[in-house]
Amino acid sequence: MIPKIWSDAKKLLIEKAAVEAGIPIDQLTLVSEPEAAMLWYKHFNKEQRSNDQNACKYIALDTGGSVDITLCQHTSNGKLTKVDIVESLQSGSIGVDQAFEKILTDIVGEDFVEQYKQKHPKEYANIFRNFEVRKRLFTREFPTNQKITLKIPVSFAEECRFRLSTDLNLLTNNTKHRDTVFWGKGKLYINYSAFKRLFEPICEDIMQQMQEMLNQTYLKEVNTILMVGGFSDNFILQDVIKNAFPELTVIIPNNAELAVMEGALLFQQNCFDKYEKMDDPDEKQRRKQQIKQTKENQPIPPACSSCSSIIKDRTQFVASIEMGNSFSGYAFISTNDLNRDPLQSMTSFWCTEKGLKTSKVPSTLLLDKDKMFVAFGYEAEAKYMELRDEKEHFDYYYFPRFLSKFHDIYTAHEVITDDMGKQMPTVDVLSIAIKYLYTHCLNAMNLERASFGDIAWVFIVPSHLNDAAIHLFRMAAEKAGICQNNTKIELKSDAASIYFCSILPKRKLPDEEEKDPFFYSGSKYLLLDAGGMTLELTAFEVLPNGKIMELVKRIHGVGGITLENTFKEFLRKIFGDLVLKKYYAEYSDDYLDLLREFEIKKRTFGSRINELPVKRISLNLPYSIIHVYEYTIGEDLKSRINEAGYKDRIKVQCSKLFIDHATFNSFFQHACHETIRYVKTLLTSSKLSGIVTIFMVGGFSESPILQNAMKDAFPKYRIVVAEEPSLAALKGAVLMAGETPIKDRRLSRYTFGVDTFQIFNPSIHNPMKKKTICGVDYCRDIFTKLVRCGDSLSAETHSSQVTYIPIYPNQTEISFGIYKSKNPGILYIDEPGCIYVGKVTVHTPLTSSKYRCVKCSMRFKTPELILTVVYPETGKMITASFDLLDEYM
What we know:
The chain starts with 7 loop residues before the first helix and ends in a 6-residue tail after the last strand. The chain has 889 residues and is α+β, with helices and mostly antiparallel strands. It has 25 helices and 40 strands. A 7-stranded mixed beta sheet has the order 29-28-22-23-24-30-34, with helices on both faces. The longest helix has 23 residues, at 661-683.
């Protein structure tokens, strides 16, 4: 996609660059931004245009860094025609940046700004990156009594003291900004009205240009303005345009910045036959002849057949939402694309101020004192760190990576503790987080709200959660407004397994052409999910009916967070505990930026691009940490580095931390070593004999270091890494929206049983539990096992039966207390960790028959445990069900 005003020479240049990058010219189409906007208007805006059946003219106002005003027209036969540039302005949102820079120059002077820009180019660029974020967060909902806070490098204030011999606040007091701009420790505060005034002149200029243009005679038939581009999301510009043109319909997409990109995608769906371009029809052919194609066309891999059964016939989209221990995200796909290629799901991208771009966002939630939503993900982290720096965070609720605190949920009234020790109901925290991702996903699909049956939702939850916790997710989703009839909740390991089951039989991997197939009756494989907080190992077996059965599941506390902890320990050795504690307290947002900088580097370290002869890895080191160190310790940092044993291995220079290759590589060793150790231990199990394939998913599996370590440690196994390891589960989850799940059974997380009496055996029973009944010594409180931890379960399969006989001759009923425990060797119901589930009482006939006994068995249908009691004499059967998330447990 290119600007409309580009010349043929520029078009030719971009085509050459694309060909050199490996894109065949026959598969390349250059689309101008106005053309893409027209297609968005035609195909994504049907509801607004439902009454407009005739030819229409409208203005596409594309406001980004610059502004393009374009006349567009749809003919009466539905075709698209006429794309004429009416006006092009150099200043769009970039004019707001210039207005902000004018504030800085008013205070410190142009010479100072130019000198600082040359001496500290990265810090100066970071000021405007932060300003860009604040521009986007300045929405209609922003409180008018709240100041806008911008991070300013410590070096800016230090240079001011050194060069100008004064304080920034004193300089500001001598300018017209003295009542609207304030400086704090590493912060610049601008009050609401002053920040709003940065936008108003640019918005007025755009509006005046529109007014002059619409006065032209040939534009009298225009009845609509379509606002696209990043600056069109700004509420000030929206209000100015709507107020200036009340007689016109103003259409603003939910995400104006992405509208032209969404429209451009339609050019890949055979829309040319409905589009009349004003360009010379032979233009592209002439350009093709000018380009010498340097690479052979690569064959397109065959599409993957999909699961055709969707929850509802009227379903238009299938969406999956993952609530992960460390990161969360979503994916969606239309039902048409699901049938054509189900793995081509759309996902979102999330960015930080420092340029970290990820397909998932941290599972971090920030609420205000009234427990109302403030922010989620990177935005929540940044906002809370700002509040901490200003000591204004005490009344907020901050839940960083809150799903990592989920272990065992037993009741619907479980609470979760925030960063400051305050508590909230777990279901409420989950519901707010789900509501955010749900709404974000709807916006990405250009749907403000979803009608019943329009979307099938599949929620992915961490595999370590018990059935009660999974049911709590369902309650939270319902509270968030998601219809239960359209919702499934699946384990992450299951979704990732389905991903591989779907893609590998249809697509060959480069090094797998001559090898045996992956999936056949009786084959086994290991799924390695290396996430941020945990390592989840799940073994599966393919059954004769084509379904898969879970064999073994192990969860360990090692993952990407292990690398972060190793890096923190590295910082502690260099700067010391005192400095880091003070630094986190005073510059917590800079500390977070440093950790994110490490996150960027660790994702690509060890890849082919890093095989170039690069001796050191560089991290942007905030000047503030050097400032805190020198102020607190009072000695040169270089001496400290040498004392810590890193002489000639690390170096600090020009706000950069340079770490040699070997030292950076050592950050990975503990996590890789532990991962390999756990896998080796698991593969020694006789139950897993015959496994030859290990599939790798999860964020940490993206690391080339871990991938290579696994291949070196297991040379006899096929190590298969998903194309996008962190998204494998999300893409697999959309396939699980069908009526028939692929997975057949899974393993019990607990040992389940009932409390009974046994004949007392002094060699094994506790004397304190001895009880004499009718002259016979019994042991009470015995935990009699019906299902053992690790047993394979399905909704249709019962556990083995256990026979029970009344103790008293006149006993006419038997009561069973139902219990569960994670201890497979449990003996008594009052042992630590044993949990009461419920109770059932059955009638026993008063007869001398030997058939006074009853036989019990269990089965599970999430979220219920079902106890079945059979009378052998008559064959009569009764059942009792127990909700594993009962409020009275």
